[in-house]
Amino acid sequence: MFKISEFSKISQVSVKTLRYYDQLNLLKPDFTDKHTGYRYYSADQMLQLNRILAYKELGFSLDQIRQMLDEQIPIEQIRGMFRVKQNEILSILDREQARLARIKDRLSFIENEGTNLTRHDVILKEVEPQLVMSYRQRASLSQIPELFRQLDSQLSSSAPSSLTQMVLWHGCDECDDDIDIEVARVLPQELTSRPPFIVKQLPQVLLMATLVHHCRTTAPCTASTELALWIERNGYRMIENEPRREICLPHDKSIDPEAYIAEVQIAVVKA
User: Fold this and answer.
1) SS3 letters across 195-263
2) Whose C-alpha in 2, 201, 204, 252 is 20 to 30 A from the C-alpha of 169?
């Protein structure tokens, strides 16, 4: 048997918390001396305390925990609950890491305000019609690789994975943090659509303002800003309802799997 102060040291839970658990009938002392009022705990109660702390980590209230202890939930079910919580936390971490990367990039843009951003050559060219299979979703920048994985899984049985990757960026008046994104693969021949994976032909564009740049899938780049400045300064305007295209170009991804080289394409006409 251990005094409450000793049990506190072993369990690394404060005496105040142990007393509070006693008041709530959550973790009663194994023995209480009637004459002195001293509380004593057994080593076996460490197992119950560990369950209480585990349930707290999962976000359950103390009332819910008391009910769960009464129900004697099997260890396999607890393990499953922790896996779900672990996946939730990992998802939050991924989103926050992507958010941190965007913050750093935005800060870099702000720090470079007033400097010459047009570091890349802009080329005007005609783009022929292109047959693609695409998958369109409202998603974040960080989800683009997953959208391509789903598209490629659909294509794996009928087309090679070496087909050119393309991202179409649509306007979205109702989107908040997410973006209306359409990922696509350029097809060498006609295939059957299997919704939500659609086979279609992108229209011919007589005048595309294009720019080749290096970037990462999880972060914004200066390419669009550079292209916008060029379009405005050279007397052009964007064609309405024509999505911005981004063509991924082949390169060695062994150094940084998230890095890529792409050609940004914006359909324009002379203003």
Assistant:
1) CCEEEEEECCEEEEEEEEEEEECCCCCCHHHHHHHHHHHCCEEECCCCCEEEEEECCCCCCCCCEEEEE
2) 252
Domain boundary among 32, 57, 73: 73
Domain count for the chain: 2
**45-57 helix and 4-11 helix, angle to the nearest 10 degrees:** 50
Do 194 and 131 fall into the same domain? Answer: yes
CA distance 203 to 121: 25
- Summarize pLDDT for 84-123 with one digit per residue, the tens: 888 888 888 887 887 787 777 667 666 665 555 556 789 9
173, 262: one domain: yes
Kindly give the parts of the chain with pLDDT less than 50. none
User: What range does the domain containing 256 cover?
Assistant: 123-270
Which is nearest to 169 in space by CA: 159, 179, 178? 179
Which segments of the chain are extended strands (E)? Answer: 2-3, 31-32, 39-41, 123-127, 130-139, 165-170, 179-186, 197-202, 205-216, 236-238, 244-249, 259-270
The predicted model scores a pTM of 0.59
Q: Read off the tokens for 127.
A: 């783009």
Q: What is the pLDDT of residues 8-44, one digit of tens each?
A: 999 989 999 999 999 999 999 999 988 888 999 999 9
